[in-house]
Amino acid sequence: MKIIDLRSDTVTHPTPAMREAMYRAEVGDDVFGEDPTVNRLERMAAERMGKEAALFVVSGTMGNLVALLTHCGRGDEVILGDRSHTFLFEQGGMAALGGITPRPVPNQPDGTLWLEDIEGAIREDNAHFPRTRLVCLENTHNMCNGTPLTAGYTAKAARLAYDRGLRVHLDGARIFNAAAALGVDVRELVREVDSVMFCLSKGLCAPVGSLLCGSADFIAEARRARKVVGGGMRQAGVLAAAGIVALEQMTGLLVGDHARAKRLAEGLEGIPGVEVAPVTTNILYFWLTEEVSKTPEEVVDGLAERGVLLLGRELGRFRAVTHYWISDEDIEATIAAMRATLA
Ligand code: TLP
To answer: What is the 3-state secondary structure (H, E, C) of 59-72?
Structure first.
């Protein structure tokens, strides 16, 4: 039975072109700065983001942690969304490893933070308080229906932060999905932030890796932080080679993933008992109405028996994520599997 894996875009395997590039990659010791393929990927990433420099890291989680360790010192505070990946799903690494306090404010359904909420969370200079140092945004917003943040919103939030002497980091794990959905160059979405992390190993299909981008001084410091968390890699060019293919060949294909997510939403909406959240990128959330007698677990299991994998999430929400290895036929098969499971 063919497995249609919609659990995440992290399940993507490298493309044949990536495997070929990995096989042929020139390598060196990257801790000595001598891996030509890593150096090339870092230059390409900085250029694509319109930043001075970039750093290749193992994962999105490491990229966000390294960014926070670089922007903040022990005792500093970070304003971020209460539905953000960094707050919910990174083990509180900023506090556990960096002595940094998270200050969550509500994420709105479109993934934004209200400017008044950011403003209200900024601490005064007072010996009782930690020092607010950083604002973190997420684009696209994973838990808020994969919604993209616009350049206009990002600029407003960033200017508010800068006016108050703060810095801004963007978790842009899926920033190329945001650019594809909004029809803008990715640079416009990251122009106003000090640092941005984006992932190669989600919709872009590379097997491993993310990039942290920012000013040359920031990245020089971030390189130290990456080393202390054990992220100094050696002949990492074999991984970077796949990342170069990801940047050269994969970003233009994301619009297709978004169209397939929309088609899946349409198909699921047509099934009695299924309600679907608005879809703008490759992440689709849906839930079941009371007329459905099956539990979420029974639905996930019923779909798995029919070869369709997706995640049942908190509050009875399900998540399906489209990606390069999901075809138009897979979408139709998923809709049919859902009909059969709920019948
Ligand atoms: N997200 C994963 C899971 O961890 C939930 C997924 O399947 O969506 N920022 C954002 C917005 C993310 O969605 C993720 C991964 C990360 C950071 C972390 O990236 P990795 O998994 O490379 O550490």
So the answer is: CHHHHHHHHHHHHC
CA 170 to ligand 1 centroid distance, Å? 13
**Cα distances (Å, whole numbers) of residue 6 to 137, 260, 292, 308:** 25, 12, 22, 7
Query: Going by CA atoms, what residue is nearest to atom 8 of ligand 1?
Result: 8
Residue 334 per-residue DSSP state: H
Residues framing ligand 1 (Cβ under 6 A): 8, 10, 59-61, 85, 89, 138, 142, 171, 173, 199, 201, 210
Tens-digit pLDDT profile for residues 58-111: 999 999 999 999 999 999 999 999 999 999 999 999 999 999 999 999 999 999
Residue-wise burial string across 323-337, b where 16 or more C-beta atoms lie within 10 A, e elsewhere: bbebeeebbebbbeb
Mutate to test the pocket of ligand 1, among 57, 142, 200 (most ligand atoms within 8 A of CB): 142
What's the pLDDT band for 218 if we cut at 50, 70, 90? very high
Beta strands (DSSP E) in the chain are: 4-5, 53-57, 76-81, 101-105, 131-138, 167-171, 195-199, 210-214, 274-276, 283-288, 308-309, 311-312, 318-321
Alpha-carbon distance of 313 to 294, in angstroms, equals: 15
Query: Which of 12, 59, 89, 239 is the best mutation target for the ligand 1 pocket, counting ligand atoms within 8 Å of the beta carbon and taking the most?
Result: 89
CA 63 to ligand 1 center in whole angstroms: 11
Two tokens, residue 137: 């945004």
* β 274-276/283-288 pair status: antiparallel
N- to C-terminal Cα distance for the chain? Answer: 21
Q: What is the DSSP letter of 147?
A: B
- The pTM for the full model equals 0.97
CB 158 within 8 A of CB 116: no
Strand 283-288 and strand 318-321: the pairing is antiparallel
pLDDT band at 312 (very low <50, low <70, confident <90, very high): confident
Q: Are 239 and 207 in contact (CB under 8 A)?
A: yes
What amino acid occupies position 186?
Answer: V
